[in-house]
Amino acid sequence: MKYAILSFGCRTNQADSCDLERDLRARGGEETRIESADVVVVNTCAVTSTAEQAARQAIRRVARLNPAARIVATGCYAVRAPSELLALTGLRPCSTVSEIVAQSPELVAQGFGHVNGCPMPGPGTRGRTLHLLRVQTGCDERCTYCIVPATRGRSRSTPIGRVIDQVGEAVAAGFKEMMITGVHLGCYGRDLQPAIGLAELLRALAAHAPGVRFRLSAVEPMDFDAGVVGAVADGAHFARHFHLPLQHASDRILSAMARPYTLDCYRKVVGNLLDACPDAAIGTDLMVGFPGETNADFEACVSYLQASPLAYVHVFPFSPRPGTAAAQMGGRPQGAEVRRRVQELRAVGAELNRRFRRRFLGSVRDGLTIEDGTLVLTDNYLRVRIPAGLPRNERVRVKVGVDGQPMTGVVR
Questions:
Q1: For 364-411, CATH number?
Q2: Which of 119, 224, 290, 291 is the most exposed place for a label (fewest CB within 10 A)?
Q3: Do domains 2-109 and 129-359 have the same CATH topology?
Q4: What confidence score (pLDDT) does residue 288 get?
Q5: What residues are paired with 368 via a beta bridge?
Q6: Could you tell me which CATH class the domain 129-359 is placed in?
Q7: What is residue 123's predicted lDDT score, i.e. its pLDDT?
């Protein structure tokens, strides 16, 4: 069986796709192009209407390029609205990898069980040089704009022993850097017996995988406590790169979103983290156009960003998700005004990133070669282009030279 996988959405979705690929290989599958695949998996995202539209377009494109293929739609959109996908090509439900292999063409998969026995594919598979180490999925929070708790279910953590085994498999496959990921990573371990926390996982990883550098994917600010800060302050094991989603700088809007913190709390978390890791890149997410957002609320975002020590910001417009509380709220700003606000915040974010990059001109940073080996991802999330000559997945020390996107430099 020949297969192809298209993945949309978050790093957890990407990790799911990697696991699915391993399952298919264990059953004799061979990766190929869409046009020649027997099965094409479209791993969907439901976080915004744009993400769902992209999945529908991908499914139609696959059906056009390869009418004989079995098309499998999985992921959050397939769980949220299977009928919308069923209407595209007559897809049918399935729940396991075996059904992908055995069922008749065109089916929808809403979740997979994973099989063992196939070695983990090494760096370069699906274009990735960093291994995505998924340690948690699901979410118990109830942010009013978010559909993910309904599509991913309750929070579920992988026991530390199994996580350490997965790290060993990734090391054996050749990975030198791993990104720890989850849907609500900061609540890792609360569902285990006995309950533990994210800090305990991080300390265990540092102790059992001394030759690996770990990065954290997004951690909610209320979960980035003193224990987590203390664990990641060990630069030998953890990259100086952290993503703390703020979502909004107006306490009134944060309350409407059901986010369990204030802007002042967020400031303190960022300050504590930078006290421990002064050279860290800290990024965030900001949502524009949430129901009830006034000019004053928006200006609070502008004001905070302009004075903040953040290295980058992801700005995106509010997207009403059917079934969420925010979808029923009134007072949404007009579309043209939302687009203007998005552009303004993105401009501020671009200046933040320029300011951060320029801090490190002339410095020497640890990094890892990615892509074709001519790009280095530094420990603090700088992207530095270097001359050809090295393969991907090489640990290097790079001197940062000229600013740009990416920057340029030389290996020392």
A1: 2.40.50
A2: 119
A3: no
A4: 98
A5: 377, 395
A6: alpha beta
A7: 87
Cα–Cα dist 277/357, whole Å: 16
pLDDT at 166 over 60: yes
C-alpha span between 1 and 248 (Å, rounded): 47
How many Cα atoms sit within 13 Å of 285 on the Cβ side?
Answer: 14
Question: Rounded to whole angstroms, how far apart are CA atoms 256 and 55?
Answer: 29
Half-sphere exposure of 229 (CA within 13 A, CB side): 19
Q: What is the pTM of this model?
A: 0.90
As given in the structure block, the two tokens for residue 138 are 């699901």
Phi and psi at residue 68, in whole multiples of 5°?
-85, -10
* Nearest alpha carbon to residue 166 among 156, 179, 185, 183: 179
By CB atoms closer than 10 A (0-12, 13-18, 19+), residue 187 is buried
What is the four-CA torsion angle of 201, 204, 206, 209, rounded to 10 degrees?
-110
Q: Where along the chain do its domains lie? A: 2-109, 129-359, 364-411
| Burial tier of 87 (Cβ tally within 10 Å: 0-12, 13-18, 19+) | exposed
Domain 2-109 superfamily per CATH: Methylthiotransferase, N-terminal domain (3.40.50.12160)
Lowest mean pLDDT among 42-46, 245-249, 317-321: 42-46
Statement: residue 349 has pLDDT above 90: yes
Which carries the bigger pLDDT value, residue 97 or residue 314?
314
Token couple for 387 = 């001359």
Considering only CA atoms, which of 168, 24, 179, 6 is closest in space to residue 78?
6
